[in-house]
Specification:
Layout: H1 4-27, H2 36-59, H3 68-92, H4 99-114, H5 118-130, H6 137-164, H7 172-178, H8 180-192, H9 195-210, E1 215-216, E2 221-222, H10 227-235, H11 238-248, H12 257-268
Antiparallel strand pairs: 1-2
Helix pairs in contact: 1-5, 1-11, 2-9, 2-10, 2-11, 3-4, 3-6, 4-6, 4-12, 5-6, 5-11, 6-8
């Protein structure tokens, strides 16, 4: 029987190949990074495939067996890491720069160590380690939901403040005061209409109203046929496609101290 470490190695190898294929296609001239087909492909994954994957994961999860302590630990860990990283970048990285530049840099670094591609990278890794011992999909979904409802809106606010602090901003009243209401409305609207949140709400409604249609498979539940087959066809290749798109956005690798430290923090801490 193949152990968890071998499953993990196989998963990471597949992930690397998918990312490398995207990188190679762009740098060998096969695909243009700004091409219409990539834009359509990206939109399809974000607006259709990813929400359906969220819906399927939440609708078929056994919520009664969820450890809410783990959910709280994930949220608190990311929050603390984000706060520490933001403060470290703001107070200790190139402190001679203008206030607006320091604010934006700190926010970018905090976004890097906090945001993650949970379903494309995290889910296959966790699945390779736990397999049939536990249904970890709900925890991955929780991370995505927290990102959509808390971390992304918070980062958006911080970015807006940083832009308002730039020397070239017309004036603080116009950038923060007069347009403040519109910016907050856009943030709230973005939260409410986020596909992750809408898919989660739809899945919870389905479990409440049509939970009797779910099929018990032991560790988890599944949708009834033919809906389960349709969802499987649409969502099964999300991970490889998302990783391929990640590869298309990569530039030529260059190793420096700061990115290495950020990668270590993201992999080990977050």
């Amino acid at each position: 029987m193949i152990g968890a470490s071998m499953h993990l190695f196989n998963t990471l190898s597949v992930n690397f190949v998918a990312i490398f294929l995207g990188f190679a296609c762009v740098h060998l001239g096969g695909i243009s990074p700004g091409s219409a087909i990539l834009k359509v492909f990206t939109c399809l994954l974000r607006k259709l495939v990813f929400p359906l994957l969220i819906f399927k994961t939440v609708a078929t999860a056994r919520l009664g067996g969820v450890n809410f302590g783990v959910l709280a630990a994930c949220a608190c860990g990311k929050s603390v890491t984000m706060a520490i990283t933001w403060c470290a970048a703001f107070f200790f990285y190139k402190t001679h720069r203008p206030l607006g530049d320091k604010f934006l840099t700190a926010t970018v670094v905090a976004a890097y160590v906090t945001c993650s591609d949970d379903f494309a990278v995290g889910f296959p890794v966790i699945d390779s380690l736990y397999r049939d011992r536990a249904n970890m999909g709900i925890y991955i979904t929780w991370n995505s939901l927290m990102g959509a409802t808390f971390f992304i809106p918070l980062l958006t606010v911080l970015f807006n403040i940083g832009v308002g602090l730039q020397p070239h901003a017309q004036d603080s009243c116009e950038s923060i005061g007069l347009n403040g209401t519109n910016k907050w409305l856009k943030i709230i609207r973005g939260i409410l209409l986020n596909p992750v949140i809408l898919a989660t709400i739809a899945a919870l409604l389905y479990k409440t109203m049509f939970g009797y249609t779910l099929v018990d498979n032991g560790v988890s539940l599944s949708m009834p046929h033919p809906w389960s087959d349709m969802l499987t066809i649409v969502t099964s290749q999300f991970g490889s496609c998302a990783l391929f798109l990640t590869g298309t956005s990569l530039s030529t690798p260059k190793a420096t101290l700061t990115p290495i430290l950020l990668v270590i923090m993201k992999v080990i801490v977050c």
